[in-house]
Amino acid sequence: MNVNATTEVTDKIDEHIEQNLDGWLDELARLCAIPSVSARHEGIAECAALVQELLQKRGFATDISPTGGHPVVYGRAEGADQSHTLLFYNHYDVQPAEPLELWETPPFELSRRDGAVFARGAKDDKGEFIARLAAIDAVKAVTGGYPCNLLWLAEGEEESGSVNLPRWVAENRDRLRCDAAVWEEGGTESDGTPMMRLGARGLLYVELRAKTLSRDAHSGGANLLPNAAWRLIWALSSMKDADERILIDGFYDAVRTPTEAEDGLLASLPDRVDEYRQEFGLDRLLTELSPIDRAFFEPTCNVAGFGAGYQGEGSKTVIPAEAFAKLDFRLVPNQDPQDIFRKVRRHLDSHGFEDVELVDLAGEPPGVTEADAPVVRLTAEIAEEVYGKAPQIAPLSGGTTPMFLFTQAGVPVIAPGVGWGSANRAHSPNEFVRIEDFKLAARHLARLVLRFPET
After folding, report:
1. Is residue 323 part of a domain?
2. Under a CB-based contact definition with an 8 Å cutoff, are residues 445 and 131 in contact?
3. Which of 65, 119, 151, 197 has the fewest CB atoms within 10 Å, i.e. is most exposed?
4. Global pTM?
5. Contact criterion met (CB below 8 Å) for 160 and 39
6. Domain span at residue 350?
7. ∠ CA(424), CA(427), CA(430), 5° rounding?
8. Separation of alpha carbons 433 and 427, rounded Å
9. Contact 269/392 with Cβ under 8 angstroms?
10. Domain boundary residue among 342, 364, 386?
11. Domain check: are 72 and 209 in the same one?
């Protein structure tokens, strides 16, 4: 296809996206109306069925596969070039919407205002999914078909650790053979510069449980009876110091510094410290590296939740008999979640906390794509065409997603998407996607699908 023909085709694709926006937003509204909260197992079967329906509408041969938890939706569509296969990964589960009182409109009713759409999942990850459907719809409408083979993998447990996906992928590896994968998330910085992240940190999510009494007791006996909350607080304080250094023996053993190529990418990124400060109302961050993305090469130990004793209004003078804490560890390349779990257990035991129970809730290794992969270069080239700015390419993101299932098999992973800096409020009340970002992402992805056979 010559340059003029390509320009003509992409102009028609852009026009199709502009003219058919309302139909895709209607589909997004249907998806967001299903409260598919994986942590509570709500709306899962209904949402998986709708994802399957939307893929079948596009000509995909699909099935819904059971797992040990929530089902996986798989789809395949044949393309003109049988030698190239592109896989899309999404998840149809969402985070809980609480605290509900902070939502300006109902979280599971898509509302449109101020040039954006708001709902739980509007960004993460239902908005991403629909933007990709918009992209392939536009390509098919203009060219009459798909340029290459397309696969779709949509899971329902990403927000709770993708605990059953590794086994499903291992059992279905033949059906998942592909040359590259388009992952969830992605988008632009707050100034509209496209951002490409080539990797994701790993995760270990655990729960610590302490029990000191057979029942809660009157706090008049606080100098006689052991308090489960204090027991857990002391255990937690042994794991990390006031300078954010993790004190678990051997925790940093496998941590590697950025490679020369990764360091080069980091050096080209802007310093976003002020943006983070403003977004979260801070005078300073705990770590103010330059650029801020260097912090993603440092592992973390985060208290994600803590509970003990009376938490209602007013006062109740009790000694808590039980306490729990939820911790997530973000892991960097070469760290292994199971190795870290064993080290946490040894740390507790060696510091006199043998009685504190440690429960493994989820774990995923990190995943990294090489910057010189052909699909990375192509995605960056197209991003500059669509957004009018050369993309920033970061080697690692702060979050976790199971891209390791493909990167460990040598499949490069890229993630263009509908995001806008750190402002979309994913996982928070009033999650939103700007309409303009949705359209730009669809244009970017459509061109990627169209040109993928070049790689």
Report:
1. yes
2. yes
3. 65
4. 0.88
5. yes
6. 202-255+298-364
7. 55
8. 13
9. yes
10. 364
11. no
